[in-house]
Write a structure and sequence with these properties.
173 residues, disordered C terminus, mainly alpha
Amino acid sequence: MSGWRQARAIALLPGIVTIVVPLLILLLGRGPRIGWGLGGLAGVLVALCGLALICAGFVLWLWTVSLFQRIGRGTLAPWDPTTRLVVAGPYRHVRNPMISGVAGILAGEAILFGSPAIAIWAAFFVVVNHVNFLLVEERGLERRFGEPYRVYRAAVPRWVPRRRPAGGGTKCR
């Protein structure tokens, strides 16, 4: 798989969602208010919470992209999807960890930059993805992967992670 395929998908999807749109929101709005404009230790703690969420979301997102490339042999883009069902790593606990990672980044940006508008953007992103998964994505996965996806879907929750991995990752292959 070429690096260009991955880079294009990353730049066009999560790049726009987590960088371009929040930047436009900040530039066209009141601008950033690091730590919600709180001073002293409170502002530092709020900013650190935002940074922690951004980092955690980025690590989760990066892990999922790596799994899509390595195991799924595809990208996160709907025009260049995986050819194998990915049920390893965080996908053993929740069906949509990539979206969770991006949502974490957006929530962290809203907290770090003190931006209610970015928080609204994050909520909009989650709602749009939820509707897309219900109406499009899950049906497409069932068509592409058949019974293995149905077993996986029955064993792994859509959004709220399981503490224990489903089937040790083996039942869902």
